[in-house]
Amino acid sequence: MFHIFLHFLVPAIVAVVFFRKTLLKAWLIMMATMVVDLDHLLAVPIYDPNRCSIGFHPLHSYYAIGVYVILLFFPKTRLVGIGLVIHMILDYIDCFM
């Protein structure tokens, strides 16, 4: 449950610190990147508390993460990239819990 809370809190902190002028827009764009978790619907079982998402689900693959990092370098896709990279980092940390 704390893991899910972090998916809301960390982007909010990033929005407050780095995107104060467009705070709500920045936070909402980063929240929209949670749609990446739809790839969990392809797994059987859909939810397994002991499974590490990174490297297992298609949108959590190392290739996909590489694309997410590339998004950081372009101003028009930066917020999406930030949201996706934050999401992957939090999911990666969850692999050790």
TrEMBL record:
Domain of life of the organism encoding this protein: Bacteria
Keyword Transmembrane: yes
Pfam families, alphabetized: DUF6122
Spans through the membrane: 6-23, 67-90
UniProt entry keywords in alphabetical sequence: Membrane, Transmembrane, Transmembrane helix
Protein name from the UniProt record: LexA-binding, inner membrane-associated hydrolase
Annotated organism of origin: Pedobacter steynii
